[in-house]
Amino acid sequence: MLCLDTSDGAAVAVLHNGQTLAAARSDDPRRHVEYLAPLIVGCLDTAGITASDLTAIAVGTGPAPFTGLRVGLVTARTFAQARGLPIHGVSSLDAIAADALAEQDIEEVLVVTDARRREVYWGRYRRDEANVVRAVAGPGVDTAAQVATDHADLVEAGQVIGRGLALYPADLAGGVSEEERAADAVVDASRLGHLALVRAQAGVTQPTEALYLRRPDVHVPGQATGR
């Protein structure tokens, strides 16, 4: 399986039978087009396979800014269509939450990422009795202050992760140490792929529609705004 995410930089991984054969990322938030293809080629080479060996595609669906997210989705869809492969969409917030809940001894977490415009994308997640990570609120986009108010229990408990934590520590840091705030929680493409596999085996539909959550920053000249 080839796994892609461009919600924050560009992340690529190749999985085989649930094992990660190769993974790479670029943290550049704007040059997705330049970096994504070389990362894919590099991961395939490292894994010792070619595109014809792939059996499925997993792609992050955001939420994220319009332009970067579109690069990953278009690449994944084109790749899948050209090869006749199934494609699975996974929320980037889901992947971050699954990573955190697998590594920490907690049952619930609030994921906050950079939405620009002085806002954050957010999602609240819980690990249930069957050890399955589920969204219990969100995804949404709002100011850090409003998100902190709405999820004060997790903020106070220090159960908040993501880039939004370092961007808005006064609102979201709670009991999180300065060192933990500085540690970026970004999408692990391998984790995203594992989630896609688990959900596919359970028969869960995984659409690839983008989670923009608001209108794109760029509009076609002369396009009606609906106002």
Automatic annotation (TrEMBL):
GO molecular function per UniProt: transferase activity
SUPFAM superfamilies for the chain: Actin-like ATPase domain
Top-level taxon of origin: Bacteria
Residue ranges constituting the Gcp-like domain according to the UniProt record: 30-148
Gene Ontology BP terms: tRNA threonylcarbamoyladenosine modification
Keywords, alphabetical: Transferase
Entry keyword annotation includes Transferase: yes
InterPro entries associated with the record: ATPase_NBD (IPR043129), Gcp-like_dom (IPR000905), T6A_TsaB (IPR022496)
Record GO cellular component, one term: cytosol
Stated name of the protein: tRNA (Adenosine(37)-N6)-threonylcarbamoyltransferase complex dimerization subunit type 1 TsaB
